[in-house]
Design brief:
With 237 residues, this protein is α/β, with parallel strands linked by helices. It has one domain (5-137, 179-228): Decaprenyl diphosphate synthase-like (Undecaprenyl pyrophosphate synthetase, 3-Layer(aba) Sandwich), CATH 3.40.1180.10. It has seven helices and six strands, in the order βααβαβαβααββα. Helix 2 (30-51) packs parallel to helix 3 and helix 3 packs parallel to helix 4. The chain binds 3-methylbut-3-enyl trihydrogen diphosphate (2 copies) and magnesium ion.
């Protein structure tokens, strides 16, 4: 049974973890896990569309992931470029609008080019907004937000006495999107790994032991149904 509209989160964020373990358990190189992970992304995007979820943010590559072996980083960047190139027609067909957050200028030139091409191509779509977090770090985002605020103060656009939660939110990468309602992390790890530190303040969390390449529409539905049973209080009674 599909969950009722009221219980459907407007914004789902996912820490797609466990690609490496998925590959290891099959005696495959880690990159094969990332390739299988890309397939799970397709299924998840489709599932979000079916459920009429408005925003889906996927943690695809963290600021800290640059520390991985060069060969893995290189393969991931190639995979990202290929994924965007191949999937853009499908995003268009499914009315998905692509966006990205993170220190995007750290990505290889070819990736940036393809990313902007795909973002531009899908800009007119008004279905699901798919936000890829790339070279993303929550602490870096907050630092970038502070710098942006300071610039606005220096330019005289705002007075520092006016700074509040709402205004600061408007200086983050996520300024155009509502905060996530539901955070899903696969592979059982109970940590945020520097993801959306500011935005997840009152987000409901759902951790599944399933590894990301094994995550299906059914798992998404289970998370959404669990979300529907949660009582959100925001500190009130
Ligand atoms: C998540 O899977 C994908 C990225 C971080 C790019 P991992 O690569 O972290 O997989 P595990 O955690 O090693 O299994
Ligand atoms: C978080 O997973 C980053 C992404 C899913 C892109 P990691 O595998 O990098 O996180 P840790 O190292 O287990 O905390
Ligand atoms: Mg991991």
């Amino acid at each position: 049974m599909a969950p009722s509209a009221k219980s459907v989160p407007q914004h789902v964020a996912i820490i797609m973890d466990g690609n490496g373990r998925w590959a290891k358990s099959r005696g495959l190189p880690r990159i094969k896990g990332h390739e299988a992970g890309a397939k799970a992304v397709r299924e998840c995007v489709e599932g979000c569309g079916d459920l009429k979820i408005e925003y889906l943010t996927l943690y695809a590559f963290s600021a800290e992931n640059w520390q991985r072996p060069k060969s893995e980083v290189f393969a991931l960047m190639r995979l990202l470029e290929k994924f965007l190139k191949e999937k853009t027609p499908e995003l268009l067909e499914k009315n998905v609008r692509l966006q990205a957050i993170g220190r995007l200028t750290n990505l290889p030139e070819a990736c940036q080019k393809q990313l902007h091409k795909s973002i531009e191509a899908t800009a007119g779509n008004n279905g699901l907004t798919l936000i890829l977090a790339l070279s993303y770090g929550g602490r870096l985002e907050i630092i970038d937000g502070i710098k942006s605020l300071l610039r606005a103060v220096e330019l005289g656009h705002i007075d520092k006495a006016m700074i509040d939660v709402e205004m600061f939110s408007k200086h983050l990468y996520t300024r155009y999107y509502p905060d996530p309602d539901l955070l899903i992390r696969t592979s059982g790890e109970m940590r945020l790994s520097n993801f959306l530190l500011w935005q997840l303040s009152y987000t409901e969390m759902f951790v599944t032991p399933k590894l990301w390449p094994d995550f299906t529409k059914k798992d998404l539905l289970a998370a959404v149904e669990e979300f529907g049973r949660r009582q959100r209080r925001y500190g009130a009674v």
